Amino acid sequence: MFTHSVPHQTRHADDADAPTVAVVGLGYVGLPTALALLTSGSRVIGLDVSAARLDAIRDRSVDLLPADHERLTAAVRDPRLTLTTDPAALAAADTVIVCVPTPVDAHLVPDLDALAAACATAVAHAVPGQLLMLTSTTYVGTTRDLLVGPLTARGFTVGEDIHVAFSPERIDPGNAHHAQDSTPRVVGGATERCTELAAEVLLRTAPSVHRVTSPETAEMSKLYENTFRAVNIALANEFADNCRSLSLDPLEVIDAAATKPYGFMPFYPGPGVGGHCIPCDPHYLLWQLRRLRIASPLVDTAMTAIAGRPRQVVGRVRELLGERGRPVAGARILLVGVSYKPGVADLRESPALEILEELADLGAEVSFHDPLVTRARLHGKLADSVVEPAAETWDLVVVHTVHPGSDLGWLTGQSAVLDATYRLTDLPSRAVL
Description:
The chain is an alpha/beta fold. It is 35% helix and 16% strand.
Protein backbone atom coordinates (compact mmCIF):
# COMPACT_ATOMS: atom_id res chain seq x y z
CA MET A 1 0.00 0.00 0.00
CA PHE A 2 0.97 3.64 -0.25
CA THR A 3 -0.10 6.96 1.23
CA HIS A 4 -1.80 9.59 -0.93
CA SER A 5 -4.91 11.67 -1.35
CA VAL A 6 -7.75 11.05 -3.76
CA PRO A 7 -9.81 13.99 -5.11
CA HIS A 8 -13.50 14.40 -4.54
CA GLN A 9 -15.87 12.69 -6.94
CA THR A 10 -19.14 14.58 -7.35
CA ARG A 11 -22.25 12.51 -6.64
CA HIS A 12 -25.90 13.21 -7.31
CA ALA A 13 -29.07 12.31 -5.46
CA ASP A 14 -30.17 10.01 -8.30
CA ASP A 15 -26.97 7.88 -8.40
CA ALA A 16 -27.87 4.39 -9.57
CA ASP A 17 -24.86 2.98 -7.67
CA ALA A 18 -25.72 4.76 -4.41
CA PRO A 19 -25.01 2.45 -1.47
CA THR A 20 -27.12 1.84 1.59
CA VAL A 21 -25.17 3.12 4.55
CA ALA A 22 -26.03 2.40 8.18
CA VAL A 23 -24.85 4.94 10.75
CA VAL A 24 -24.59 3.52 14.26
CA GLY A 25 -25.02 6.33 16.77
CA LEU A 26 -26.86 9.52 15.82
CA GLY A 27 -25.14 12.02 18.08
CA TYR A 28 -23.19 15.16 17.19
CA VAL A 29 -21.07 13.17 14.69
CA GLY A 30 -23.46 10.48 13.51
CA LEU A 31 -26.42 12.69 12.68
CA PRO A 32 -24.53 15.17 10.44
CA THR A 33 -22.80 12.18 8.84
CA ALA A 34 -26.16 10.55 8.08
CA LEU A 35 -27.51 13.82 6.64
CA ALA A 36 -24.45 14.31 4.44
CA LEU A 37 -24.71 10.75 3.12
CA LEU A 38 -28.40 11.18 2.41
CA THR A 39 -27.72 14.42 0.52
CA SER A 40 -25.06 12.60 -1.53
CA GLY A 41 -27.68 10.16 -2.77
CA SER A 42 -27.13 7.26 -0.38
CA ARG A 43 -29.91 5.39 1.32
CA VAL A 44 -29.33 5.73 5.05
CA ILE A 45 -30.24 3.60 8.04
CA GLY A 46 -29.83 5.55 11.28
CA LEU A 47 -29.47 3.26 14.29
CA ASP A 48 -29.45 4.54 17.85
CA VAL A 49 -30.07 2.81 21.18
CA SER A 50 -32.12 5.79 22.37
CA ALA A 51 -35.72 5.99 21.14
CA ALA A 52 -35.87 9.46 22.70
CA ARG A 53 -32.97 10.59 20.50
CA LEU A 54 -34.75 9.32 17.40
CA ASP A 55 -37.93 11.15 18.45
CA ALA A 56 -35.91 14.35 18.91
CA ILE A 57 -34.49 13.91 15.41
CA ARG A 58 -37.95 13.38 13.92
CA ASP A 59 -39.15 16.49 15.78
CA ARG A 60 -36.03 18.38 14.60
CA SER A 61 -35.34 19.41 18.21
CA VAL A 62 -31.61 18.72 18.00
CA ASP A 63 -28.54 20.97 18.07
CA LEU A 64 -27.30 21.39 14.50
CA LEU A 65 -25.85 24.04 12.23
CA PRO A 66 -28.52 25.95 10.24
CA ALA A 67 -27.52 24.18 7.02
CA ASP A 68 -27.89 20.79 8.68
CA HIS A 69 -31.26 21.81 10.12
CA GLU A 70 -32.40 22.48 6.55
CA ARG A 71 -31.12 19.05 5.55
CA LEU A 72 -32.89 17.47 8.51
CA THR A 73 -36.20 19.09 7.62
CA ALA A 74 -36.01 17.44 4.21
CA ALA A 75 -34.56 14.19 5.57
CA VAL A 76 -37.36 13.36 7.99
CA ARG A 77 -39.75 13.27 4.99
CA ASP A 78 -37.33 11.34 2.77
CA PRO A 79 -38.21 7.64 2.27
CA ARG A 80 -34.50 6.89 1.79
CA LEU A 81 -33.91 7.55 5.51
CA THR A 82 -34.80 4.91 8.08
CA LEU A 83 -34.50 5.68 11.81
CA THR A 84 -34.56 2.67 14.07
CA THR A 85 -33.49 1.12 17.37
CA ASP A 86 -33.48 -2.38 15.84
CA PRO A 87 -29.91 -3.59 15.17
CA ALA A 88 -31.21 -6.25 12.77
CA ALA A 89 -31.64 -3.42 10.25
CA LEU A 90 -27.84 -3.34 9.80
CA ALA A 91 -28.00 -6.48 7.67
CA ALA A 92 -29.57 -4.43 4.86
CA ALA A 93 -26.61 -2.05 4.62
CA ASP A 94 -23.68 -2.13 2.21
CA THR A 95 -21.62 -0.07 4.68
CA VAL A 96 -21.90 0.25 8.45
CA ILE A 97 -20.30 3.34 10.02
CA VAL A 98 -19.83 3.38 13.79
CA CYS A 99 -20.06 6.92 15.26
CA VAL A 100 -20.47 6.57 19.03
CA PRO A 101 -19.01 8.64 21.90
CA THR A 102 -15.67 7.70 23.46
CA PRO A 103 -15.61 9.63 26.75
CA VAL A 104 -13.43 9.23 29.82
CA ASP A 105 -14.65 8.53 33.34
CA ALA A 106 -14.19 10.64 36.48
CA HIS A 107 -10.63 9.27 36.80
CA LEU A 108 -9.78 10.18 33.18
CA VAL A 109 -9.78 6.51 32.17
CA PRO A 110 -11.29 5.70 28.74
CA ASP A 111 -14.89 4.54 28.90
CA LEU A 112 -15.18 2.02 26.09
CA ASP A 113 -18.63 0.68 26.95
CA ALA A 114 -20.57 2.42 24.16
CA LEU A 115 -17.88 1.76 21.57
CA ALA A 116 -17.51 -1.92 22.48
CA ALA A 117 -21.29 -2.40 22.43
CA ALA A 118 -21.69 -0.67 19.06
CA CYS A 119 -18.89 -2.68 17.46
CA ALA A 120 -20.26 -5.92 18.91
CA THR A 121 -23.66 -5.07 17.42
CA ALA A 122 -22.11 -4.37 14.02
CA VAL A 123 -20.17 -7.64 14.12
CA ALA A 124 -23.18 -9.67 15.26
CA HIS A 125 -25.29 -8.44 12.32
CA ALA A 126 -22.53 -8.34 9.70
CA VAL A 127 -23.23 -10.03 6.38
CA PRO A 128 -20.87 -11.03 3.56
CA GLY A 129 -19.78 -8.17 1.33
CA GLN A 130 -20.25 -5.42 3.91
CA LEU A 131 -17.79 -2.68 4.79
CA LEU A 132 -17.56 -1.86 8.51
CA MET A 133 -15.95 1.50 9.22
CA LEU A 134 -15.13 2.90 12.64
CA THR A 135 -14.91 6.69 13.06
CA SER A 136 -14.92 7.18 16.86
CA THR A 137 -11.68 8.53 18.34
CA THR A 138 -10.02 5.78 20.34
CA TYR A 139 -6.79 3.98 21.23
CA VAL A 140 -4.42 2.55 18.62
CA GLY A 141 -5.50 -0.99 17.76
CA THR A 142 -9.21 -0.61 18.47
CA THR A 143 -10.28 -1.43 14.92
CA ARG A 144 -8.46 -4.75 15.03
CA ASP A 145 -9.52 -5.52 18.60
CA LEU A 146 -13.23 -4.73 18.20
CA LEU A 147 -13.89 -5.41 14.51
CA VAL A 148 -11.20 -7.43 12.72
CA GLY A 149 -10.70 -10.01 15.49
CA PRO A 150 -14.40 -10.64 16.22
CA LEU A 151 -15.27 -10.82 12.52
CA THR A 152 -12.50 -13.35 11.99
CA ALA A 153 -13.84 -15.34 14.95
CA ARG A 154 -17.24 -15.39 13.21
CA GLY A 155 -15.62 -17.04 10.19
CA PHE A 156 -15.16 -14.04 7.91
CA THR A 157 -11.95 -13.37 5.99
CA VAL A 158 -11.33 -9.65 6.30
CA GLY A 159 -10.36 -8.17 2.96
CA GLU A 160 -12.17 -10.86 1.01
CA ASP A 161 -15.76 -11.52 2.11
CA ILE A 162 -15.96 -8.57 4.50
CA HIS A 163 -14.07 -5.30 4.79
CA VAL A 164 -12.93 -3.12 7.71
CA ALA A 165 -11.46 0.38 7.93
CA PHE A 166 -10.91 3.26 10.32
CA SER A 167 -11.56 6.87 9.29
CA PRO A 168 -11.54 9.40 12.14
CA GLU A 169 -14.45 11.83 12.18
CA ARG A 170 -13.67 15.44 11.46
CA ILE A 171 -16.72 17.40 12.53
CA ASP A 172 -16.36 20.76 14.26
CA PRO A 173 -19.68 21.35 16.10
CA GLY A 174 -21.12 24.82 15.63
CA ASN A 175 -18.54 25.84 13.02
CA ALA A 176 -20.05 26.40 9.57
CA HIS A 177 -16.60 27.20 8.14
CA HIS A 178 -15.49 23.58 8.52
CA ALA A 179 -18.24 21.70 6.70
CA GLN A 180 -17.87 18.00 5.94
CA ASP A 181 -17.88 18.58 2.20
CA SER A 182 -14.83 20.85 2.51
CA THR A 183 -12.82 18.78 5.00
CA PRO A 184 -10.46 16.02 3.80
CA ARG A 185 -10.74 12.59 5.42
CA VAL A 186 -8.07 10.10 6.46
CA VAL A 187 -8.67 6.38 6.06
CA GLY A 188 -6.73 3.21 6.79
CA GLY A 189 -8.11 -0.22 5.95
CA ALA A 190 -7.23 -3.66 7.22
CA THR A 191 -6.19 -4.45 3.63
CA GLU A 192 -5.66 -2.34 0.53
CA ARG A 193 -9.04 -3.44 -0.81
CA CYS A 194 -10.66 -2.34 2.47
CA THR A 195 -9.08 1.08 2.06
CA GLU A 196 -10.31 1.36 -1.53
CA LEU A 197 -13.90 0.57 -0.60
CA ALA A 198 -13.87 2.92 2.39
CA ALA A 199 -12.45 5.74 0.25
CA GLU A 200 -15.31 5.30 -2.23
CA VAL A 201 -17.86 5.82 0.54
CA LEU A 202 -16.01 8.75 2.09
CA LEU A 203 -15.69 10.53 -1.25
CA ARG A 204 -19.45 10.91 -1.32
CA THR A 205 -19.20 13.55 1.43
CA ALA A 206 -15.55 14.71 1.51
CA PRO A 207 -13.46 16.74 -0.98
CA SER A 208 -10.57 14.26 -0.80
CA VAL A 209 -9.41 11.15 1.03
CA HIS A 210 -5.91 10.70 2.38
CA ARG A 211 -5.08 7.00 2.47
CA VAL A 212 -2.69 5.51 5.02
CA THR A 213 -1.27 2.04 5.30
CA SER A 214 -3.21 0.72 8.29
CA PRO A 215 -6.11 1.38 10.67
CA GLU A 216 -3.53 1.97 13.41
CA THR A 217 -1.94 4.84 11.48
CA ALA A 218 -5.35 6.44 10.99
CA GLU A 219 -6.19 5.96 14.68
CA MET A 220 -2.92 7.58 15.75
CA SER A 221 -3.40 10.47 13.33
CA LYS A 222 -6.61 11.45 15.12
CA LEU A 223 -4.96 11.24 18.52
CA TYR A 224 -2.14 13.43 17.23
CA GLU A 225 -4.61 16.03 15.84
CA ASN A 226 -6.37 16.51 19.16
CA THR A 227 -3.27 16.14 21.33
CA PHE A 228 -1.64 18.88 19.26
CA ARG A 229 -4.57 21.14 20.06
CA ALA A 230 -4.54 20.21 23.75
CA VAL A 231 -0.84 20.97 24.16
CA ASN A 232 -1.16 24.32 22.40
CA ILE A 233 -4.25 25.33 24.37
CA ALA A 234 -2.41 24.53 27.60
CA LEU A 235 0.47 26.69 26.37
CA ALA A 236 -1.89 29.55 25.45
CA ASN A 237 -3.42 29.45 28.95
CA GLU A 238 0.01 29.46 30.57
CA PHE A 239 1.13 32.38 28.42
CA ALA A 240 -2.04 34.27 29.37
CA ASP A 241 -1.17 33.79 33.05
CA ASN A 242 2.35 35.03 32.35
CA CYS A 243 1.02 38.07 30.48
CA ARG A 244 -1.20 39.05 33.42
CA SER A 245 1.83 38.83 35.72
CA LEU A 246 3.67 41.18 33.36
CA SER A 247 0.66 43.51 32.83
CA LEU A 248 0.31 42.56 29.17
CA ASP A 249 -2.74 41.76 27.05
CA PRO A 250 -2.34 38.11 25.95
CA LEU A 251 -4.55 38.51 22.88
CA GLU A 252 -2.46 41.46 21.68
CA VAL A 253 0.64 39.30 22.10
CA ILE A 254 -0.95 36.36 20.23
CA ASP A 255 -2.22 38.55 17.40
CA ALA A 256 1.24 40.06 17.00
CA ALA A 257 2.89 36.63 16.88
CA ALA A 258 0.27 35.43 14.38
CA THR A 259 1.47 37.96 11.79
CA LYS A 260 4.38 35.58 11.14
CA PRO A 261 3.38 33.63 8.02
CA TYR A 262 5.26 30.46 8.97
CA GLY A 263 6.14 28.46 12.07
CA PHE A 264 3.25 29.76 14.21
CA MET A 265 -0.42 28.91 14.63
CA PRO A 266 -2.54 31.00 17.03
CA PHE A 267 -4.29 29.30 19.95
CA TYR A 268 -6.25 31.33 22.46
CA PRO A 269 -6.63 31.12 26.25
CA GLY A 270 -9.90 30.58 28.05
CA PRO A 271 -11.61 29.12 31.14
CA GLY A 272 -11.00 25.50 30.15
CA VAL A 273 -11.77 23.03 27.40
CA GLY A 274 -14.99 21.07 26.89
CA GLY A 275 -16.59 18.64 24.49
CA HIS A 276 -15.61 15.03 23.97
CA CYS A 277 -12.44 15.78 21.98
CA ILE A 278 -9.72 17.85 23.61
CA PRO A 279 -10.42 16.98 27.29
CA CYS A 280 -10.86 13.27 26.48
CA ASP A 281 -9.04 12.02 23.39
CA PRO A 282 -5.41 12.47 24.54
CA HIS A 283 -6.25 10.34 27.58
CA TYR A 284 -6.83 7.39 25.24
CA LEU A 285 -3.20 7.74 24.17
CA LEU A 286 -1.89 8.26 27.72
CA TRP A 287 -3.92 5.30 29.00
CA GLN A 288 -2.47 3.01 26.34
CA LEU A 289 1.07 4.24 26.88
CA ARG A 290 0.85 3.75 30.66
CA ARG A 291 -0.21 0.15 30.11
CA LEU A 292 2.99 -0.24 28.07
CA ARG A 293 4.99 1.61 30.76
CA ILE A 294 5.87 4.36 28.29
CA ALA A 295 6.05 7.98 29.50
CA SER A 296 4.71 10.94 27.54
CA PRO A 297 5.58 13.81 29.91
CA LEU A 298 4.68 16.74 27.64
CA VAL A 299 1.20 15.41 26.88
CA ASP A 300 0.68 14.38 30.50
CA THR A 301 1.59 17.84 31.77
CA ALA A 302 -0.65 19.56 29.19
CA MET A 303 -3.65 17.41 30.12
CA THR A 304 -3.06 18.03 33.83
CA ALA A 305 -3.01 21.78 33.14
CA ILE A 306 -6.21 21.58 31.08
CA ALA A 307 -7.99 19.61 33.80
CA GLY A 308 -6.96 22.20 36.39
CA ARG A 309 -8.04 25.28 34.45
CA PRO A 310 -11.62 25.50 35.88
CA ARG A 311 -10.13 25.47 39.39
CA GLN A 312 -7.97 28.42 38.36
CA VAL A 313 -11.15 30.28 37.44
CA VAL A 314 -12.60 29.54 40.87
CA GLY A 315 -9.38 30.71 42.50
CA ARG A 316 -9.50 33.95 40.55
CA VAL A 317 -13.14 34.47 41.60
CA ARG A 318 -12.13 34.12 45.24
CA GLU A 319 -9.28 36.57 44.70
CA LEU A 320 -11.48 39.21 43.04
CA LEU A 321 -14.19 38.93 45.68
CA GLY A 322 -11.54 39.13 48.40
CA GLU A 323 -10.18 42.34 46.91
CA ARG A 324 -13.65 43.82 47.44
CA GLY A 325 -13.94 42.46 50.96
CA ARG A 326 -16.60 39.95 49.93
CA PRO A 327 -16.38 36.27 50.96
CA VAL A 328 -17.39 33.65 48.43
CA ALA A 329 -19.96 32.20 50.81
CA GLY A 330 -23.20 34.03 50.16
CA ALA A 331 -21.88 35.92 47.13
CA ARG A 332 -24.26 36.13 44.16
CA ILE A 333 -22.30 34.98 41.13
CA LEU A 334 -23.59 34.77 37.57
CA LEU A 335 -21.83 32.74 34.90
CA VAL A 336 -22.49 33.91 31.33
CA GLY A 337 -22.49 31.08 28.79
CA VAL A 338 -22.36 27.49 30.02
CA SER A 339 -21.95 25.54 26.77
CA TYR A 340 -18.41 24.37 26.08
CA LYS A 341 -17.96 26.54 22.97
CA PRO A 342 -19.71 29.42 21.19
CA GLY A 343 -22.61 28.66 18.89
CA VAL A 344 -23.67 25.31 20.37
CA ALA A 345 -26.02 24.21 23.14
CA ASP A 346 -23.63 21.45 24.16
CA LEU A 347 -22.70 20.92 27.81
CA ARG A 348 -20.46 17.87 27.40
CA GLU A 349 -17.40 18.28 29.64
CA SER A 350 -18.08 22.03 29.81
CA PRO A 351 -15.74 23.77 32.28
CA ALA A 352 -18.70 25.97 33.24
CA LEU A 353 -20.36 23.10 35.09
CA GLU A 354 -17.28 22.40 37.19
CA ILE A 355 -16.86 26.10 37.94
CA LEU A 356 -20.48 26.44 39.07
CA GLU A 357 -20.30 23.28 41.17
CA GLU A 358 -17.10 24.35 42.95
CA LEU A 359 -18.42 27.83 43.65
CA ALA A 360 -21.64 26.35 45.04
CA ASP A 361 -19.58 24.03 47.24
CA LEU A 362 -17.89 27.15 48.64
CA GLY A 363 -21.30 28.58 49.58
CA ALA A 364 -21.85 30.98 46.68
CA GLU A 365 -25.31 31.59 45.25
CA VAL A 366 -24.63 30.63 41.63
CA SER A 367 -26.77 31.23 38.54
CA PHE A 368 -26.16 31.16 34.82
CA HIS A 369 -27.33 32.95 31.70
CA ASP A 370 -27.09 31.28 28.29
CA PRO A 371 -29.34 32.09 25.31
CA LEU A 372 -28.83 28.58 23.88
CA VAL A 373 -29.05 26.52 27.08
CA THR A 374 -32.31 27.01 28.92
CA ARG A 375 -31.70 24.42 31.63
CA ALA A 376 -28.71 22.67 33.22
CA ARG A 377 -28.20 20.23 36.08
CA LEU A 378 -26.32 21.73 39.02
CA HIS A 379 -25.73 19.82 42.24
CA GLY A 380 -28.14 17.17 41.07
CA LYS A 381 -30.95 19.64 40.47
CA LEU A 382 -32.20 21.30 37.32
CA ALA A 383 -31.57 25.05 37.16
CA ASP A 384 -33.01 27.47 34.60
CA SER A 385 -31.04 30.09 32.73
CA VAL A 386 -31.61 33.63 34.04
CA VAL A 387 -33.60 35.36 31.31
CA GLU A 388 -32.94 38.98 32.30
CA PRO A 389 -29.55 39.08 34.03
CA ALA A 390 -29.38 42.89 33.90
CA ALA A 391 -32.46 43.11 36.12
CA GLU A 392 -30.66 41.51 39.06
CA THR A 393 -27.71 42.46 41.25
CA TRP A 394 -24.57 40.33 41.12
CA ASP A 395 -21.45 40.46 43.25
CA LEU A 396 -19.49 39.09 40.30
CA VAL A 397 -20.25 38.11 36.71
CA VAL A 398 -17.99 35.47 35.12
CA VAL A 399 -18.03 35.45 31.31
CA HIS A 400 -17.35 31.88 30.20
CA THR A 401 -18.78 31.56 26.66
CA VAL A 402 -19.96 34.29 24.30
CA HIS A 403 -22.33 33.06 21.61
CA PRO A 404 -22.42 34.75 18.19
CA GLY A 405 -24.83 37.67 18.17
CA SER A 406 -25.03 37.93 21.97
CA ASP A 407 -25.72 41.41 23.32
CA LEU A 408 -23.52 41.86 26.38
CA GLY A 409 -23.97 45.61 26.65
CA TRP A 410 -25.60 45.12 30.06
CA LEU A 411 -22.21 44.09 31.46
CA THR A 412 -21.10 47.74 31.46
CA GLY A 413 -23.42 48.30 34.41
CA GLN A 414 -21.91 45.48 36.49
CA SER A 415 -19.54 46.33 39.32
CA ALA A 416 -17.23 43.37 38.74
CA VAL A 417 -16.72 41.15 35.68
CA LEU A 418 -14.25 38.30 35.28
CA ASP A 419 -13.65 37.94 31.55
CA ALA A 420 -12.48 34.36 31.07
CA THR A 421 -12.63 34.82 27.28
CA TYR A 422 -10.06 37.68 27.30
CA ARG A 423 -12.06 39.41 24.56
CA LEU A 424 -14.27 41.98 26.32
CA THR A 425 -11.67 44.71 26.38
CA ASP A 426 -14.08 47.67 26.60
CA LEU A 427 -15.65 46.82 29.97
CA PRO A 428 -14.76 49.35 32.69
CA SER A 429 -14.90 46.82 35.55
CA ARG A 430 -13.19 43.96 33.74
CA ALA A 431 -10.61 41.58 35.15
CA VAL A 432 -9.06 38.56 33.42
CA LEU A 433 -7.78 35.22 34.64
